[in-house]
Design brief:
This protein is α/β, with parallel strands linked by helices. It is 41% helix and 17% strand. The chain has 14 helices and twelve strands. The protein has helices at 3-14, 26-31, 38-47, 59-68, 91-100, 114-118, 129-135, 147-156, 177-186, 200-203, 212-221, 236-242, 266-269, 282-298, and strands spanning 16-21, 34-36, 52-56, 73-76, 104-109, 122-124, 140-144, 161-164, 191-194, 208-209, 226-230, 247-250. The strands form three sheets. It has a four-stranded parallel β-sheet with strand order 2-1-3-4. The structure holds (~{Z})-2-methylbut-2-enedioic acid and iron/sulfur cluster (SF4).
Length: 300
């Protein structure tokens, strides 16, 4: 049996669906049943009737799917693939901030630990953060952990008082305006599409700012045929699949070391390694479920 036949047999035997993020290797995206951003994958996880789900992404994504689907077995393709930014929000900071402000909403980017989510009022992703913050009645918003995404959202909502912490994606945050200017010099006709995890100096040079899904939609509907894409390079697979006649340029250094840890061979064995199965304490799960469900509701 070749690899694909083995995988199909295993999927049938174990009743498993494979979910992959746009940032994983293209070989894995091609083998997945559903590919998308973390918001889409969280919604998809809820609709699926399969007994088991394999998540090819970073740790918090498997954890989110398990939180929303306690009756399914959820496996991270590689449990060591984690998002460093998820650990940049501090539970003590949340408690201190709640003591400081009466009228406060703690808004937590899904790139966070389940412990942080459990202390939050609502979760957001880059595709729904502005929409959700706008709907909150509180004036003060403690936006964690991504200060770049938070600053971007705050510009759209001048009536709110945003408070940030120190977190940022180490990959997007390393990109400087000079990186963009030199690519623009090489490709002067290209439109610049950037992810809001980038710094303001990068966003200020961009023609469009949005989540991975937003970038894909924008490139697909645009009449332009050349784009400089400022997010993790692996998104190239979906951009080129949907737009074979358009040209995309990337920054070579914009890879995600954690998303790159997955190997397609692990699809056959990940369910045998007990560390890959996501297990969550029920009390903690209940607490984290509330802000996640509120996100699904307000993000509609
Ligand atoms: O929410 C996600 O999936 C991430 C990490 C990025 C994006 O913009 O989709
Ligand atoms: Fe985390 Fe950045 Fe990798 Fe996204 S690209 S998973 S935010 S380290």
């Amino acid at each position: 049996m070749n690899f694909t036949d083995k995988l199909n047999a295993l999927k049938k035997e174990k009743d498993v669906a494979i979910l992959a993020h746009y940032y994983v290797d293209e070989e894995i995206q091609a083998l997945a049943d559903y590919v998308g951003d973390s918001f889409y994958l969280a919604q998809k996880g809820r609709e699926l009737t399969n007994k088991r789900i394999i998540m090819a992404g970073v740790y918090f994504m498997g954890e989110t799917i398990k939180t929303l689907n306690p009756d399914k077995k959820v496996y991270n393709l590689n449990w060591l693939a984690d998002c460093p930014m998820a650990h940049m929000a501090n539970e003590k900071d949340i408690v201190d901030m709640r003591n400081k402000y009466d009228d406060l909403a703690v808004v937590t980017y899904v790139n966070s630990t389940i412990e942080t989510k459990a202390l939050s009022d609502v979760c957001v992703t880059s595709s729904n953060a502005a929409k959700i913050c706008k709907k909150l009645k509180e004036k003060n918003i403690f936006f964690i952990p991504d200060k770049n995404l938070g600053a971007y959202v705050s510009e759209e909502l001048p009536d709110k008082n945003f408070i940030f912490n120190r977190g940022a994606c180490p990959r997007h945050n390393q990109i400087n305006k000079e990186d963009i200017l030199s690519l623009k010099k090489l490709h002067p006709r290209a439109r610049v599409l950037a992810h809001p995890e980038c710094k303001k100096e990068v966003l200020d040079l961009s023609d469009y700012i949005g989540s991975t899904k937003g970038i894909i939609n924008e490139a697909s509907k645009s009449s332009a045929d050349e784009f400089i894409v400022v997010t993790v390079k692996a998104i190239r697979y979906e951009l080129e699949r949907l737009n074979p006649d358009k040209t995309f340029y990337f920054l070579d250094k914009l890879t995600c070391l954690n998303m790159n840890m997955h190997k397609k061979e692990d699809l056959l064995t990940c369910m045998d390694n007990p560390y890959n199965e996501v297990k969550i304490d029920e009390d903690l799960r209940q607490k984290a479920l509330k802000p996640l469900e509120r996100m699904l509701e307000l993000g509609k």
